[in-house]
Amino acid sequence: MEGFGFEPVSTPLYGLAGHPIPPLGQIVLPLSLGHVPQRVTKMTTFTVVDTPSAYNGILGRPALKDFRAVVSTYHQKLKFPVGKEVGVLCGDQRVTRRCYEGAVREEGKRARLEVNMIRKGRTV
């Protein structure tokens, strides 16, 4: 993937379904959390994959450690230090639910399409 600044990576990621996902590479980009004046920016390594997902990005343990962030999935909040203050990112349950339902619906359409192709004797 020349031209994008991707560094090669050979270790596959494993999704929730348990199957390996081959990465396209890794890239280091600035990531900002929060809103001014409680914003912090750090250079963050992203592993890039080409696979359907309900998410545009997932912060893993290394990024959370770098930001010294604390996550509450129950409260849908992420808190992180900004100087002597605490920055907070709040999730939106309605948006999260719509996004998840849309991803599940799309995955169901793909599964039905593949089943129909197999029944008709076509290869995917």
Please outline the helices and strands:
Elements: E1 13-14, E2 20-21, E3 25-35, E4 38-48, H1 61-67, E5 70-72, E6 77-82, E7 85-90, H2 93-119
Question: Can you characterise this structure?
Answer:
The structure is a single chain. By secondary structure, the chain is α+β, with helices and mostly antiparallel strands. The protein has a domain at 92-124. 27% of the residues lie in helices and 33% in strands. The chain contains two helices and seven strands, in the order E-E-E-E-H-E-E-E-H. The protein has helices at residues 61-67, 93-119, and strands spanning 13-14, 20-21, 25-35, 38-48, 70-72, 77-82, 85-90. Strands 5-6-7 form a three-stranded antiparallel sheet, with no helix packed on it. A two-stranded antiparallel ribbon has the order 1-2. Strand 3 and strand 4 (38-48) form a beta hairpin.
